[in-house]
Design brief:
single chain, 589 residues, alpha+beta, Alkaline Phosphatase, subunit A, Jelly Rolls, 10-stranded mixed β-sheet, 6-stranded mixed β-sheet, Sulfatase, Alkaline_phosphatase_core_sf
């Protein structure tokens, strides 16, 4: 009997030591970290000899490394494909600015799926898939959002951001600040499953770097050059690597806190970038950078760590896609995918938990941007110009092998043409969706001028709409407009963010929609200079910033309907002095 009791005790002890053997394993936490414009070659574990990324390298050592993982050539499409598991063109993403970044409302997001499964959800960083509810992250499954919804931001030090729709001011360097919020979220939800999305906005331009990171890189010698070395901007490369080192430090802080909370074992952590590098710098000899459908423009690092289930150090060579993340994570967490639309991604669970050497020779991943289409198979890439490259030997895409591999060539051409006829046709030629105002999903609607139109003399502060403001207001005939839709009538408090000198004190500003109008006078100057250049390592292509302040225009009742919302002045006192950044409408009832 004593031996029997000892035997039972041994079995129970074994079940306690190895929960997956004797009891149902708890739902894993999920952390998805996405860098912005960071190339495959910007990390130490991929062979970069200059950058120091010990935390990400450790993640790669302890996790699974995907050797051939593909994203879209630019930001918003990749984010949409992550959120939905579907090609971005299916979800209405046709650009990276104005309203063309909005993810169609009939798409189901990964956050909604995990939220419905009982997870607490949060997103901290760059959203880039719609700025107004119901496109806003708080309407797409995220309980908490802190960051910005635009395609890029113009200032990384104490920037103006938003928290669940409310405008607020960031604290410190933006990547540090976003990571602080991620850590606080983990602290608050350590006892229940959480889904944390951390879409960082570096090393995207402007190239602003904390001093301690830049001092290390500003005088360093680069031993590795870009594939087209003559196009490399050395200062830009150094800034990107310095920003990458800052990201790595923050990844280290996040992982350390995960350890302290004793959550590491049962947390799935993913790390990848949204597209290729934003400059011609070393990238493993691959052709192409951000914005191209060549290998270097769409190949991204992907690390997945889950100590409880995944073998550290594993390398997966099969081609995989950002669209695979949704079905894979749902499968690993044993959560049903409730999307009403078929997924283009596939679960990688068999690769992760079974045979890592398994390769799907019949898989094809299509990359699309700006009318350029390329197709990746396990060994080949059919380029946008229909040249065929054998990527087993030629990452630089130098030799057209179409005549040497006629069967593969014809197959990839068929795949490309089928995708054009069956998938690309789902994307409308024009995006005529109005911006939604007054949606109950958020108490406040933000209408940045980057999503509006200048009329008369008014123009953007920069040709790139994201984070621009309207300037060159010369006469009372000039105005700014947005095409909007209001589903439910209501009373709204309207504010306008402006700058001007004291000479425009007394100027009236009005907002109208339908037959409703609200008007107020400027009663205080806000004569501030452009800034941002003092923190830029190299001159930016995008707009510089101003410290815009709100002017309360008053409250107004708006009727439901669609139409043009206008901001105008019937008494402009000084020309070329008034600049506008944003209009907000807060529902009062």
């Amino acid at each position: 009997m004593n031996n029997f009791i000892r035997f039972i005790f041994l079995i129970l002890s074994t079940c306690t030591m190895y929960p997956s053997f004797g009891q149902k394993f708890e739902k894993p936490n999920i952390i998805i970290i996405v860098s912005d414009d960071q190339g495959w070659g910007d990390l130490g574990y991929n062979g970069n000899l200059t950058v120091a990324t010990p935390s990400i390298d450790k993640l790669a050592k302890n996790g699974v490394r995907f050797q051939h993982f593909y994203v879209s050539p630019v930001c918003s499409p990749t984010r949409a494909e992550l959120l939905t598991g579907r090609y971005h063109v299916r979800g209405g993403i046709s650009g990276t600015a104005t309203g063309r970044v909005r993810l169609d409302l009939d798409e189901t997001t990964i956050a909604q799926i995990f939220k419905n499964a009982g997870y607490s959800t949060a997103a901290y960083g760059k959203w880039h898939n719609g700025g107004q509810a119901p496109y806003h992250p708080n309407s797409r499954g995220f309980d908490d959002f802190y960051g910005f919804c635009s395609g890029h931001w113009g200032n990384y030090f104490n920037p103006i951001l938003e928290h669940n729709g409310e405008i607020t001011k960031g604290k410190g360097y933006v990547t540090d600040d976003l990571t602080n919020h991620a850590i606080e979220f983990m602290d608050q939800h350590a006892k229940s499953p959480f889904f944390l999305y951390l879409p960082l906005n570096t090393p995207h331009s402007p190239m602003q770097v904390p001093t301690e990171n830049w001092n290390k890189y500003k005088n360093i010698e680069l031993s590795q050059k870009g594939t087209i070395a003559s196009k490399e901007n050395i200062l830009h490369t150094k800034a990107a690597l310095a920003m990458t080192e800052n990201i790595d430090w923050n990844v280290g802080r996040l992982m350390t806190r995960l350890d302290e909370l004793k959550l590491t074992q049962n947390t799935i952590v993913l790390y990848f970038s949204d597209n290729g590098p934003n400059g011609h710098r070393w990238n493993g000899g691959m052709k192409g950078i951000k914005g191209t459908t060549d290998e270097g423009g769409v190949r991204s690092p992907l690390i997945m760590q889950w100590p409880a289930k995944l073998t550290g150090g594993t390398q997966i060579k099969s081609i995989t896609s950002v669209m695979d993340i949704l079905p894979t994570l749902a499968d690993l967490a044993d959560i049903s995918v409730t999307s009403k639309k078929p997924l283009d991604g596939k679960s990688l669970k068999p690769l992760l938990l079974g045979n890592q050497a398994l390769v799907d020779s019949n898989r094809f991943i299509i990359s699309y941007w700006n009318k350029q289409i390329s197709v990746r198979s396990q060994n080949f890439r059919l380029a946008a110009d229909d040249a065929l490259y054998n990527l087993v030997d030629d990452y630089a895409q130098t030799i057209n092998m179409a005549s040497s591999f006629p069967v593969d060539y014809q197959k990839l051409l068929e795949v490309k043409n089928k995708w054009k006829s069956e998938v690309l046709t789902e994307l409308p030629n024009e995006d005529d969706r109005p911006l939604v105002i007054g949606h109950p999903g958020l108490p406040i609607t933000q209408l940045p001028v980057s999503e509006g139109f200048g009329h008369g003399n008014i123009k953007r502060s920069n040709q790139h709409p994201n984070d621009s403001h309207m300037t060159n207001w010369l006469s009372k005939d000039d105005y700014i407009s947005w095409e909007v839709a209001l589903e439910q009538a209501g009373d709204f408090e309207v504010s306008l963010y402006y700058t001007c000198s004291k000479e425009n004190i007394g100027t009236t500003l009005s907002m109208s929609f339908g037959d409703s109008i609200v008007t107020s006078k400027i009663n205080k100057e806000n004569n501030v200079p452009l800034f941002g250049m003092e923190n830029d390592i190299i001159a930016r292509e995008e707009s510089y910033m101003k410290d815009f302040k709100p002017l309360n225009l008053g409250s107004v009742r708006l009727k439901a309907g669609s139409g043009t919302l206008k901001v105008f002045s019937n008494s402009l006192l000084k020309a070329n002095d008034l600049d506008v950044k944003l209009v907000t409408l807060r529902r009062l009832n």
